Each structure stands twice: as structure tokens, then as C-alpha cells.
Design the sequence.
């Protein structure tokens, strides 16, 4: 075990996969020699050579398109899109191609590729370095979507994603690359080293896709979250002494519906928290599922805490970010009704 | 290790050609990496005055040599030579020099402001000032610019207010963009300067569309776009080229080849064994390759392309061959990926020094006036910064704009769901005792 931050854990996952399987190749903008603008691929070109870890032209369509082609040959490409905000040019290759290769060729061709991309706000990145586009992809049939919230999970989930035989989008909450963030932007940043989930095994391990993690057991309400928001919610529960049950979904597609149902049946209340915009966001799907499956157990309307339905502002990012105040207001509302 | 993944059918394994060499993947590598000694003496750069200047009505098929040549005007002695030497008054050339010095001083101050924590991000254009300023001086004030984030020189050359620009950098009360955009993502419609996107090359087809609109309406104004050589890889570049050619759009498409994207060199953008100007040949677009550190060459090429566009002869692609003298932005350290010897060794020189040397050689300038102009422009920037900072700087805890402003202006009229969210936000922040409007 070594204390790792999330970037180091991701790097370690890539290292483990590249060492174990010569068919794993990694590429993207600034990924090769430099090791990625967030350093997630640092040292891998040196270790595995330029044909397994390389820089690409600045063309996201091309990055995903060649990943699909390589995957159809039999490689396991791990492509990086530098910021999730820049994934849109690759939309067609993901949605019409990667997602459907297996289905439309009746299994003749598959696309076992992983797309890693930093997402989410909280770094004063303005509207094009802050977005959370996961809901756009969870809407597409044929793509898996994974979002880790700790170094330990990041490594185990990324290995599972790379070993998975279907295309997986792996969104990395960049605000928590270097430390968990409870949403109090005016307090000093905590490093990962102090967090138990920063203890990461050096070798191979897998966290199966499709399994949520109950971060904290409780009775007052169920809170469904993922990525950075897991830490924001945990902070609110601790600070206000609320006995909420916090579930880190970890994988959005396929979703751990059993964990959600069991928890909501127990608590009778449900709050859904994500940083992405509200309308048509993944929270809407979660809310529909809980309503459909747990209606008779519910004692209060389901609450959603999300980013506002606007672009991510630069200077007012803390007015946009669904921080502790907004989470607490929602918890109060479900407790009071 | 087998060369064939297990999933690959045996019939396709290449066994039939087992006596041929195995395939290898080529991954371009720059000549120099950190620690390397740099020598560019073999870089073939045509001399000033060498490239021919065709008529503006020329058929692009007649000038397929120019994308591989280099339009240069200022020779090593500072003389303006050859058919591209523009006939510019001393006053206009000094105006260009002034705009370049002002841009450099501005970059220097804003970069330092970022380092002092007054803003989140900054992008310098040091070493590339001639690209923007040479072009701005050759375009008409009404021509529409679709820049990337490194063309602050356009605004400065068009006389735009430095205070206004700085307010955007500081996301402060004076920021017309209400703190919404990342620093350097200016928008200045009055200056003919399109709102900058963070997403690379999206402005390219937009510039073509604007130019098409000008033609549809029988207007007189033309458009110009800029992107880096790295950005030419994006699909939008190629979409723009196709549309520009098909509709003979009155547009100038500029590629600023400063040799580096972030950490990747021009070879990763597809520059090995060819030039970015040569992209235009396949599209049937007139294309020029220009010494981007030669303000007079940039001016001449832009003027040629502008006249061509105005005379309905269609688009021009211009590659500006230049060098990014410092980091990509405040977020990176070039020492991690390129040799520290590269910037001073790159054989194009400093664009400011080159224009200054030319003016001195022409008897239109001297060292004392140059020093005075440096001081004047530095003072001007300092004074502007003092003004701008009175309206605030970026801070994580002091808000320069009302919270509710983030909902405004998304749509022309605010729909119910945004009104609800806006009201909810104000309720929640008030309940928490946060001052939602500026203290
Ligand atoms: C669609 C998109 N992909 C990736 C990025 C991230 N990015 C920002 S600048 C940059 C490098 C651009 O290099 P170049 O076009 O050569 O312009 P330069 O910065 O050298 O002026 C990259 C990769 C982006 N902003 N947009």
C-alpha cells in the first residue's frame, strides 16, 4: 500500500494494465512525452515506448475514431480527452460508432476502449474547463459511464474499465485529483494523504463496474452522489451531525439499482446530488427510478441538488457549484416534509 | 509477445508475407528535447525578397509553389526588399511598432498579475506580436476578426481600451462579460472582434459563414480567422476550408505556426515534410507562407489576401511561420518538454527588434525614440492596470457580480425553470447568510 492522490492512482492503473497486457495502448493530446496536462500518464511513454503511449493531433474525432479502429483490430485503447468540455467533436464516433459496433455487427466487431477525461468544476476553469457532460452519454445506449471519487476507487475502477469488453467513459473529477473537497472553497485544501481511501495497493485489483459504495450508513435519508459531490455531502453530514446514508454510485451505467432500492426502502427519503446541469441530467433518471421502484416507501418528495441550468461561470463559480449550503437546504427539506 | 492479438483470426495474421519486414508505427518526434543542444542552421528559410508576388486575381493552381516558400520583406540589414515590400509611411510603421510594444507590455503585466493571484489564467503572445498587429493594420476597421486566444494584438492594434481588456482578465465589476468567461476570452463587437471560444478552431467555419453572409448581402466587409498550427488538426479547420472554397468566401484564414501546441510540436499536428500553408493546395485555395516575425511581410500578405477577397476572387490561407517564445499559458512549464535553448536559437528573431531595426535602417527611427516609446507604452499599461484594479480583481471569496446574473442572458427571455432556479439560489444564499450581491 502507498498513499496516492487520484492522479497517481490513475497513473498506477494504466501502468498495471500496460504491464499486464501488451494490447493496452494510451494516447491523447499531450499524453505521450509530457505525460498529460494533469500528469496522469507521466512516465508511461518512457516505460512502454512511443508506440504504446503517444501524443495525438488535436482532433477529438480522430482520437476516438482511431481508438474504435484499434479496438476493432483487437487492441485495448485508453484514449484521453484533455477536458470533458472538448469531447463534443468526438460525439459521433462515441455515440454512433463505439456504442454500436457490437450490436450492429452482431458481435463480429467490438470496441473495448476506455475514454478517460477530467470533468467538473471548482478550478476557475470557466465554461470550457468545468463541465459535467455525463448525462449526455448515459442517455446513449451502449456506453458505460464510470466516475470515481477516491484514489482507491479510481485505480480499481479504471482497471475494470480497461479490462471491460465494452466502451467505457471514465470521467475523472479534476477538482479532487489532489485532495478531497468538501465544497468549502474558502478553507485550506486537504491533501489525499490524510484520507483512508488514499491507501492504494501497488498491484492489480479491480472494483467491478456496476457496484455502488455505501460511504456512510444512516437512517435519516438516502443521498445518491458521485465524484466530487460525494465529499461535499459527506462534509455536510459530518458538520451538521445528520444521520444520512451516503451512496457513491461510482458507475452510472450500469447502475447499482439494488443498492439504491435497499437504501431508499430503509430511509424513506432520497436526495440526489450532482454537479451537472439539472434538466435531463442523470439525477432525473435516478429520481424516476426511485419513484418507480420505491414509491410506497417514500415519505417525502425526492430532492435534486444540481448545477444550475446555465453555462459554468468563471468568477461566480461558487454561486454555481452545488455546495454545502445547497446540499444542507435539500436535506432540511426532505427531513421536514 | 505475438504481434497479433488473440482476438485476431489466424487467416489475417500476415503469415503469407512472413518474409517481409513487420509494420512499424511512426510517431513524430521533435528535434530537440530538454537538455539537448539546439542547432537550427540547416533550417531552410528563403531569403527576404525571394518569394514572388502574384496578381491578386491569380488562379490558386498557378501559385502552388508559394505555400512551400516564405514571404519575407525585412532583410538581415533591416532593409525592406522584394515585391512584397509594402509602401507604408513611417508613421504607419511606427504605429505598428507601438502596438507591438504595447501588446508586449500588456502581456507582461497581465502575466505578472496572474502570478500575484489577481486572476486565474493568462496567455501571452510574446514573440508573435507581428502576426496580429501586421494583419490588423492591413485590414479595414470594419472587417470582422475571428481570433483564437492569442490575438490580443488585434484589439490593441485597433485601439481598443486596455482598461476594458484588463477588466475581462480580472473578471471585475468593469468586465462587460460579467465574469462569465475565462481570462483572455475577450469579446468586442465594436472592435470587430468575435467572442472567443475555449474550444479550438470553432471560429474557423464561423468566420467563413460570416464572410458568406457578407457576400449574400452584397456587403463590402470581409472576415479573417486565426488558429494555431495544432488546431489545424481539428475537423472544423477542414470544414472551413471546404466551405470557403466552395462558396469563394471573402475570408482570410490564418494559421499561426508557432511550432508548439501545448507540449506537442508541429509534427504532431501534421507538419512533417510539408507546410501548413500547403493544406490549401488540396482545397484549391490560394495559400501563402509568411515570416510571422516580419511585421511588414504579414502586412503585405494580409493586404494581398484582403484585396483578393474584396475583388471576389475568394479565400486565402496564410501560414505565419513564427515561434512561441514562452509557455503555452500560465498553466504550463515548457522546460518539461522542449530544450531551453530553442527560443533564442529559433532563426526568426524578435519581431519587435526586426521592425525597429528596419525603421532605424530606413532613417525613420532611433534608439532614443525607441527607449522613449518603451517607457511610454509601459506607463500606459501601468496606468490602465491601476484603473482596472479599482474595479476589483478576481477573488474566490469576494464576488464582483450579483449571483443572480449567472441566469441572465442565456436566452433572450428567461424561461420559467431558470426563474425558479434563480429565486431558489437567492433564497438559499440568503438563508445561509452569504452576501449575494457585491459588498
Ligand atoms: C476542442 C479542444 N481540444 C483541446 C483543447 C485544449 N487545448 C487548448 S490550447 C491547446 C493547444 C493549441 O495549440 P495551437 O493550436 O498550436 O495554438 P497555440 O496555443 O500554439 O497558439 C489545446 C490542446 C481545447 N481548448 N479545445
Sequence:
Amino acid at each position: 500500500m502507498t498513499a496516492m492522490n487520484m492522479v497517481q492512482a490513475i497513473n498506477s492503473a494504466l501502468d498495471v494494465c500496460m504491464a499486464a497486457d501488451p494490447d493496452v495502448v494510451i494516447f491523447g493530446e499531450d499524453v505521450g512525452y509530457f505525460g498529460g496536462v494533469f500528469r496522469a500518464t507521466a512516465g508511461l511513454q518512457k516505460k512502454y515506448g512511443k508506440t504504446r503511449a503517444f501524443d495525438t493531433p488535436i482532433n477529438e474525432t480522430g482520437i476516438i475514431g482511431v481508438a474504435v479502429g484499434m479496438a476493432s483490430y483487437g487492441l485495448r485503447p485508453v484514449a484521453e480527452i484533455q477536458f470533458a468540455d472538448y469531447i463534443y467533436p468526438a460525439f459521433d464516433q462515441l455515440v454512433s460508432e463505439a456504442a454500436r459496433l457490437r450490436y450492429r455487427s452482431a458481435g463480429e466487431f467490438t470496441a473495448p476502449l476506455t475514454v478517460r477525461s477530467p470533468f467538473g468544476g471548482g478550478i476557475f476553469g470557466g465554461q470550457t474547463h468545468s463541465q459535467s457532460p455525463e448525462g449526455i452519454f448515459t442517455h446513449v445506449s451502449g456506453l458505460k459511464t464510470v466516475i470515481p471519487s477516491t484514489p482507491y476507487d479510481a485505480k480499481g475502477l479504471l482497471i475494470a474499465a480497461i479490462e471491460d469488453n465494452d466502451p467505457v467513459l471514465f470521467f475523472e473529477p479534476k477538482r479532487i485529483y489532489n485532495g478531497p473537497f468538501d465544497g468549502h472553497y474558502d478553507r485550506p485544501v486537504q491533501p489525499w494523504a490524510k484520507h483512508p481511501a488514499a491507501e492504494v495497493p501497488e498491484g492489480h485489483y479491480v472494483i467491478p463496474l456496476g457496484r455502488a459504495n455505501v460511504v456512510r450508513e444512516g437512517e435519516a435519508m438516502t443521498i445518491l452522489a458521485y465524484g466530487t459531490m460525494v465529499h461535499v455531502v459527506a462534509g455536510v453530514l459530518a458538520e451538521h451531525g445528520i444521520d444520512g446514508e451516503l451512496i457513491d454510485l461510482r458507475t452510472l451505467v450500469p447502475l447499482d439499482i439494488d443498492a439504491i432500492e435497499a437504501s431508499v426502502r430503509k430511509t424513506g427519503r432520497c436526495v440526489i446530488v450532482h454537479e451537472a446541469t439539472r434538466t435531463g441530467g442523470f439525477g432525473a433518471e435516478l429520481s424516476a427510478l426511485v419513484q418507480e421502484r420505491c414509491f410506497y416507501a417514500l415519505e417525502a418528495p425526492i430532492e435534486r441538488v444540481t448545477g444550475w441550468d446555465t453555462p459554468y461561470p468563471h468568477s461566480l463559480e461558487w454561486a454555481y457549484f452545488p455546495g454545502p449550503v445547497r446540499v444542507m437546504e435539500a436535506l432540511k427539506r426532505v427531513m421536514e416534509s | 509477445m505475438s504481434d497479433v492479438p488473440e482476438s485476431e483470426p489466424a487467416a489475417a495474421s500476415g503469415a503469407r508475407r512472413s518474409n517481409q519486414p513487420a509494420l512499424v508505427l511512426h510517431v513524430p518526434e521533435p528535434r530537440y528535447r530538454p537538455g539537448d543542444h539546439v542547432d537550427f542552421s540547416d533550417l531552410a528559410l528563403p531569403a527576404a525578397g525571394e518569394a514572388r508576388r502574384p496578381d491578386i486575381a491569380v488562379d490558386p493552381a498557378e501559385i502552388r509553389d508559394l505555400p512551400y516558400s516564405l514571404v519575407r520583406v525585412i532583410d538581415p540589414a533591416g532593409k525592406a526588399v522584394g515585391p512584397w515590400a509594402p509602401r507604408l509611411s513611417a508613421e504607419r510603421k511606427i504605429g505598428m511598432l507601438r502596438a507591438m510594444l504595447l501588446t508586449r507590455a500588456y502581456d507582461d503585466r497581465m502575466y505578472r498579475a496572474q502570478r500575484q493571484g489577481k486572476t486565474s489564467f493568462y496567455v501571452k503572445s510574446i514573440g508573435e506580436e507581428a502576426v496580429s498587429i501586421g494583419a490588423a493594420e492591413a485590414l479595414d476597421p470594419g472587417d470582422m476578426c475571428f481570433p483564437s486566444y492569442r490575438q490580443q494584438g488585434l484589439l490593441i492594434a485597433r485601439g481598443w481600451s486596455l482598461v476594458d481588456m484588463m477588466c475581462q482578465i480580472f473578471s471585475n465589476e468593469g468586465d462587460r462579460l460579467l465574469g462569465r468567461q475565462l481570462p483572455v476570452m475577450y469579446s468586442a463587437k465594436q472592435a470587430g472582434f468575435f467572442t472567443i471560444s475555449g474550444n479550438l478552431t470553432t471560429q474557423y467555419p464561423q468566420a467563413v459563414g460570416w464572410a458568406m453572409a457578407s457576400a449574400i448581402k452584397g456587403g463590402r466587409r470581409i472576415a479573417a480567422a486565426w488558429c494555431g498550427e495544432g488546431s489545424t488538426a481539428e475537423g472544423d479547420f477542414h470544414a472551413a476550408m471546404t466551405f470557403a472554397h466552395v462558396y469563394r468566401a471573402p475570408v482570410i484564414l490564418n494559421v499561426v505556426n508557432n511550432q508548439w501546441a501545448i507540449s506537442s510540436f508541429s509534427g504532431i499536428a501534421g507538419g512533417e515534410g510539408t507546410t501548413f500553408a500547403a493544406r490549401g493546395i488540396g482545397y484549391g485555395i490560394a495559400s501563402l507562407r509568411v515570416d510571422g516575425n516580419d511585421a511588414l511581410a504579414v502586412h503585405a500578405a494580409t493586404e494581398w489576401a484582403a484585396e483578393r477577397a474584396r475583388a471576389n476572387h475568394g479565400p486565402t490561407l496564410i501560414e505565419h511561420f513564427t515561434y512561441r517564445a514562452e509557455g503555452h499559458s500560465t498553466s504550463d512549464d515548457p522546460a518539461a518538454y522542449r530544450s531551453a535553448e530553442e527560443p533564442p536559437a529559433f532563426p526568426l528573431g524578435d519581431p519587435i527588434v526586426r521592425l525597429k531595426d528596419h525603421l532605424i535602417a530606413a532613417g525613420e527611427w532611433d534608439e532614443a525614440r525607441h527607449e522613449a516609446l518603451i517607457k511610454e507604452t509601459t506607463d500606459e499599461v501601468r496606468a490602465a492596470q491601476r484603473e482596472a484594479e479599482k474595479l476589483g480583481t478576481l477573488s474566490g471569496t469576494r464576488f464582483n457580480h450579483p449571483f443572480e446574473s449567472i441566469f441572465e442572458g442565456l436566452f433572450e427571455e428567461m424561461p420559467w425553470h431558470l426563474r425558479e432556479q434563480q429565486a431558489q439560489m437567492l433564497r438559499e444564499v440568503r438563508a445561509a447568510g452569504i452576501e449575494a450581491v457585491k459588498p
